[in-house]
Amino acid sequence: MSTTPELGSLGNMADDLGSLAQSARTKQLKTARGILYVIGVLALVANGVAFFIADTIAGWQSTVKLKRCESGIKWPTLLPSRKLDLK
User: Fold this and answer.
1) Could you tell me the sign of the dihedral formed by the alpha carbons of 15, 20, 22, 23, in that order?
2) Which value, in Å, is the radius of gyration of the alpha carbons in the chain?
3) pTM of the entire structure?
4) Which domain holds residue 47?
């Protein structure tokens, strides 16, 4: 009776450890893929909501601008009132 394992059993242990590591990597990749799918679906939903809300927001803004013009309130301009000399 020898206490050292035979060469054939060492090969089987290495194969078992290799397949265990491969199955762990496969599980991690499946988890990452699932997370990316969820992120993608959430991004699609958020963009879809923004797309449909944008028309409403644009309508509100144009209504506000129209009311300001009708009431005589000047719309603020982003351009300076005098020319800048950049020499």
Assistant:
1) positive
2) 33
3) 0.49
4) 35-71
